[in-house]
Amino acid sequence: MKKYMPPVVMLAVFEAIAVTLWLTKGNIFYLINFSYIGCSIALGIFLFIRRHRHARRVVQLLVGLYMLIYLGLIHGENMQIEGFWYYLFTGVFEAATIHYAVAKIFGPLLFGRGWCGYACWTAMVLDFLPYKTPSSPRKKLGWIRYITFAASLVFVAALFLARVGNLERVMFWAFVVGNVVYYAVGIALAYAFQDNRAFCKYICPVAVFLKPMSYYALARIKCDKDKCISCGKCRRVCPMDVDVTDNSRKRENGTECILCMECVRNCPRDAL
Ligand code: SF4
Ligand code: SF4
Ligand code: SF4
Fold this sequence. Notes:
By secondary structure, the protein is mostly helical. It has 14 helices and no strands. It has helices at 5-25, 28-49, 55-74, 81-90, 95-105, 108-111, 114-118, 121-126, 144-161, 167-193, 198-202, 207-214, 233-237, 262-266. The longest helix has 27 residues, at 167-193. The two termini are 21 Å apart. The chain binds iron/sulfur cluster (SF4) (3 copies). The site of one iron/sulfur cluster (SF4) has 13 residues, from α14.
């Protein structure tokens, strides 16, 4: 039974968040929302332990579709980075701000970039494309993400400064258009670079939050040096070019790890 502790712990963490927010905000939505996400992630970890091939994809679809379709399109919450700035400027600590705080700012201290591997609705689609492992070395284009990060902030600030009316509606359409643009750019880049995760590596503004916080992540893949035979397979199957055989926090592309477990599944020596 010990091997099933990780999903139980993950579920407990999300239930703690769900109950805390439900009681402090007096809104049962938070209980249902975080319980659903916690159950989805716990199910994925359980399936992974049972060596189910599509464990991660199951979670991606359960959480990604819920956020994109239900929270974004039906509920009208802009859960993209523009929505975060918008709610931050209005001083409202609601869905998008809480989502960012839990999944992308403080959560990564615990579970690194698990968001990117298991919940992001952009990557949910990109991961269906044919280039699961990059066919060429990483390009030095990561600086683009700082431009898109600044652009998202300037866009929302400009809406406030220009006193644009009906901002709720504007933010809803910003969410729709933003997602269409993300998918179009993400798919084009994946084909251009033959790398499904090119958008994540070079363009995504959210990584500006995720990378520094995940540097200190509690949940990390570690390598048992006594078992490792330096075959290099983990590196070859890694979609994010992480040198997972280096246990230091300064490992190459360490803050890019999305905890997809491809390296663990493919290691011939069970060294990870
Ligand atoms: S880097 Fe951005 S697009 Fe990629 S999975 Fe993470 S949040 Fe999603
Ligand atoms: S796949 Fe396993 S054995 Fe091979 S280099 Fe990576 S950790 Fe070492
Ligand atoms: S293959 Fe391993 S090192 Fe690479 S992103 Fe996935 S979990 Fe992280």
